[in-house]
């Protein structure tokens, strides 16, 4: 690698100073940091300021400085140009991050090629109306069909193959193994090892005495017919999109995968213990 584009969430405490230190470390290692013109006043020198589209085109990888939301946004930006992403945690949890604030000494490994690309499956969520495709999103964590702007339970009929399960509650979460530690985890879903290839369906506050998440094959295809107002589609914590009756949401595994850069050897259970304090 020679050039790395920096995307920084400046709302995180200390993120600007952390990004400046990252730029300095990259320069010492003979790597060029590319930043958007909007961020140049805060980060250059030693960074090179360019229009953001040019940063994406020229870079060998993206470095996302922030929390998991910032890393998710960086992954979505990197997908069209097939660039890997290194997350550096400037937030609270940073479960997707490859490095913590105190581990910047590992950045020269990028110049040496001493890194691993961690491939993660994605979900493809599509919104249809009368056979016409209205919107398409790729999700590293999850696609959520849930109640929106109403206080009562909603009806979410989920079709998979010839079977339809109708959930009554706050909605459902379609999650990748990567996303099993995110919203699905908060809704009571299991934790999946991120290298697995599967889709996790987790109900949200389902109005049944027993309501459990279900793990499906990565080949499973889902369809949700929208029967009434008060529902929205949310992909990877992006702003919710209000849904209308007679629309349909389909979810399946995407053809593309995301690539996260790892500069250190980590055991998944150790990461869980450190981030979630589960054991």
Q: Care to describe what's here?
A:
β15 and β16 (241-242) form a beta hairpin. The chain has 2 domains: 3-115 and 263-276, Rossmann fold (3-Layer(aba) Sandwich); 122-256, Tumour Suppressor Smad4 (Sandwich). The chain has helices at residues 15-28, 40-43, 52-58, 68-78, 109-112, 183-186, 268-276; strands at residues 3-8, 32-36, 48-50, 61-66, 85-89, 116-129, 132-139, 142-147, 154-160, 163-169, 171-175, 198-204, 214-217, 221-225, 231-235, 241-242, 247-262. It is built from 7 helices and 17 strands. By secondary structure, it is an alpha+beta fold. It starts with a strand and ends with a helix.
Compact summary:
This protein is an alpha+beta fold.
DSSP strand content:
35-45%
CATH architecture of the largest domain: Sandwich
CATH level 4 superfamily of the largest domain: Probable inorganic polyphosphate/atp-NAD kinase, domain 2
Structural class: alpha+beta
Could you name the CATH class of the largest domain?
A: Mainly Beta
> Into how many domains do the coordinates divide?
2
Number of DSSP strand runs: 17
Predict the CATH topology of the largest domain: Tumour Suppressor Smad4
Element layout with pairings:
Blueprint: E1 3-8, H1 15-28, E2 32-36, H2 40-43, E3 48-50, H3 52-58, E4 61-66, H4 68-78, E5 85-89, H5 109-112, E6 116-129, E7 132-139, E8 142-147, E9 154-160, E10 163-169, E11 171-175, H6 183-186, E12 198-204, E13 214-217, E14 221-225, E15 231-235, E16 241-242, E17 247-262, H7 268-276
Parallel strand pairs: 1-2, 1-4, 2-3, 4-5
Antiparallel strand pairs: 6-7, 6-17, 8-11, 8-15, 9-10, 9-14, 11-12, 12-13, 14-17, 15-16
């Amino acid at each position: 690698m020679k050039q790395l584009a920096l995307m920084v969430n400046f709302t995180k405490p200390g993120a600007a100073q952390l990004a400046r230190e990252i730029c300095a470390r990259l320069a010492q290692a003979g790597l060029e940091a590319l930043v958007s013109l909007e961020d140049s006043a805060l980060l250059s020198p030693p960074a090179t300021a360019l229009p953001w589209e040019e940063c994406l085109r020229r870079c060998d990888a993206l470095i996302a400085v922030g929390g998991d939301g910032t890393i998710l946004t960086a992954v979505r930006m990197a997908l069209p140009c097939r660039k890997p992403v290194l997350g550096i945690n400037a937030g609270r949890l940073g479960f997707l991050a490859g490095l913590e604030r105190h581990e910047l000494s590992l950045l020269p490994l990028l110049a040496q090629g001493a890194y691993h690309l961690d491939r993660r499956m994605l979900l493809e969520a599509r919104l249809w109306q009368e056979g016409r495709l209205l919107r398409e999103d790729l999700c590293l964590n999850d696609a959520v069909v849930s109640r929106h702007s109403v206080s009562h339970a909603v009806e979410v009929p989920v079709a998979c193959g010839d079977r339809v399960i109708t959930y009554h509650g706050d909605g459902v979460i379609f999650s990748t193994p990567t996303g099993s530690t995110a919203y699905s985890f908060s809704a009571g879903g299991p934790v999946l090892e991120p290298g697995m290839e599967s889709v996790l369906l987790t109900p949200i506050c389902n109005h049944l005495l027993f309501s459990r998440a279900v793990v499906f094959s990565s080949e499973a295809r889902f369809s949700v017919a929208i029967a009434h107002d008060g529902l929205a589609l949310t992909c990877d914590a992006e702003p919710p999109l209000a849904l209308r009756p007679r629309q349909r949401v389909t979810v399946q595994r995407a053809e593309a995968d995301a690539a996260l850069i790892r500069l250190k050897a980590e055991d998944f259970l150790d990461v869980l213990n450190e981030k979630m304090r589960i054991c």
